[in-house]
From TrEMBL:
Membrane topology of the entry: Multi-pass membrane protein
GO cellular component terms listed in the entry, alphabetical order: chromaffin granule membrane; lysosomal membrane
Assembly, per entry: Homodimer.
Claim: Lipoprotein is one of the keywords in the record: no
Keywords: Cytoplasmic vesicle, Electron transport, Heme, Iron, Membrane, Metal-binding, Translocase, Transmembrane, Transmembrane helix, Transport
Alphabetized Gene3D superfamilies for the sequence: 1.20.120.1770
Protein name: Transmembrane ascorbate-dependent reductase CYB561
TM segment ranges: 14-36, 56-76, 88-107, 127-146, 158-180, 200-220
Source organism (scientific name): Carassius auratus (Goldfish)
Length: 252
């Protein structure tokens, strides 16, 4: 143990952090489903139950699946980078589709109930997060999965992509917290201060969402957990840069 490199010793804890994040993420989705299903009347695509599709889809798409998409570069450390990129983009696409369903549900519900659209801080933050998420996904496809940009431009954009990826997770969790508070005040304003079971459940959901975001953020930002460089991929990158920018490689 004393002779073990620090990074190797630290890597032993990575599966525990990843497993913890999955337990937290699944718990968030399940609790959201129970809250909307048991306390708020279930799920349907018409009537008052249509709104309940919204929080479930947003927690599943823009928090849980989005967080998992962020984690793939730490979980799949030895697979080819191309495969990990495809999985990363695919998880984002699934999260996007689910989120669109959630947005359509809430807009349809507001229209049917004659409720104004986009008037609350929750809706503003949520829509900003969604728009930035689409932009981030499209830029990621253009720069990395189907790279049209030069290696120099990709190298410049990569830190921004990583930063905004984590920022969007924070914004997603924050928007959910605003939505939870708004829903509780609309639905159980009179009984909420008396620690009703629905209020306690929703507050627990909020704490679990924060914990999920913290664990994912910790795993992604910890240097020991970074994906190790692959010599073969590095060589291909050098040759791609040579072809795209006309540079002469220092080695074959």
């Amino acid at each position: 143990m004393d002779g073990m490199p620090l990074s190797m010793g630290s890597l032993r804890t990575l599966p525990w952090y990843v497993a913890g994040s999955q337990v937290l993420g699944v718990a968030c989705v399940v609790i959201t489903g129970v809250w909307m299903g048991h306390y708020r009347g279930g799920y349907a695509w018409d009537g008052s139950a249509q709104f309940n599709v919204h929080p479930l889809c947003m927690v599943l798409g823009l928090v849980f699946l989005y967080g998992d998409a962020v984690l793939v570069y730490r979980v799949f450390r030895n697979e080819t980078k191309r495969s990990v990129k495809i999985l990363h983009a695919l998880l984002h696409m699934i999260a996007l589709v689910i989120s669109i369903v959630g947005l359509v549900a809430v807009f349809d519900f507001h229209s049917s109930a004659k409720i104004s659209h986009m008037y609350s801080l929750h809706s503003w933050c949520g829509m900003l997060t969604f728009v930035l998420f689409i932009l981030q996904w499209l830029l990621g496809l253009g720069f990395f999965l189907f790279p049209w940009a030069s290696a120099q431009l990709r190298s410049w954009y990569l830190p921004l992509h990583v930063f905004f990826g984590l920022l969007l997770l924070v914004m997603s969790v924050g928007s959910c917290l605003l939505g939870i508070t708004e829903k509780l005040l609309f639905s159980i304003k009179e009984t909420y201060p008396r620690f009703t079971s629905e209020g306690v459940l929703a507050n627990t959901l909020g704490l679990l969402l924060v914990c999920f975001g913290v664990v994912v953020g910790y795993v992604v930002t910890r240097e020991d957990f970074r994906r190790p460089p692959n010599p073969e991929e590095e060589a291909l990158s050098v040759h791609f840069k040579t072809l795209s920018e006309g540079e002469i490689p220092s080695s074959p």
